[in-house]
Amino acid sequence: MFSNINTDLEQLNNNLRKISGPRHPILYAAAEYLFSAGGKRIRPAIILLVAKATNTKEQLYDEHKRLAEITEIIHTASLLHDDVVDNCKTRRGLDTVNQKFNNKVAILAGDFLFAQSSWYLANLNNLSVVKIISKVITDFAEGEIEQGLRNFDPSSSLDTYMNKSFHKTASLLAYSCKAAAILSGADSKVQKHFYNYGKHLGIAFQIIDDILDLEGTEKNIGKPQGLDLKNGNLTAPTMFALDKCPELKEMIQREFTEKNDIQLATQIITRTNAIKQAKDLAKEHAQASLEYLHSYPKSQSIENLKLFSYNIINRIS
Q: Which PROSITE patterns match (predicted)?
């Protein structure tokens, strides 16, 4: 999927590792640790591919490359804050920044990255892009508040979950895809198509993550299993199971305070068809993302973008 952007992704990784510079030793150490930990760099890869797909010459401008970096910086900053809020101790199989250093350093590092992304954004000198990417940072905060207010609330609706998922995950991908099209000089119709591609793909990503929280292992998801349940974050599989299992509602209302509650709740959810329903929902959004690519001429970039959607569908089939 990265075949025609590998060199650009390597340069992106090098730039990310240098982001804080040596002036702030603690922030430098945190950023170096964070970005050296790797990650799939899915979001910047998608942005670079959209940039090529919406450019008549299939080339990347410096602004596209900077946008890809901004997208990954914002995503990483949000993870730093999430790890503190969720008291998460591992990510990608390594200690989180809050675990390796402390919560204060993690929060400050996240704030620094948000500020750095804003500085890079302003220097793109494109007001339309500044406006829509700035909205992403607002959406992150709104999503986190929505989630916090609904913790351990079995009356939460699927609509509430989808709204939160857009704000916390899909917004970044949707608006960044649109921004890449804007920087390519694409018209409003093309911008809207790629916004919707990113939106549906982002929602599918989030649902898959929520399924893996119940089905995965710490080794293959890079963080402790059942963390969402433990923190009272009710995701799609849990909501589907709630309709069928009154005992699950009781566990949620007592905030899983009894011994083995998390283990029992996981078993309850997995023995219903709730996981399948969640997978079907993820597939729907992955299929929807493909709909916005069908009208574009065949190119390596478009085919690689389609592979992201197909991989989700094949992964959960």
A: POLYPRENYL_SYNTHASE_1 (PS00723), POLYPRENYL_SYNTHASE_2 (PS00444)
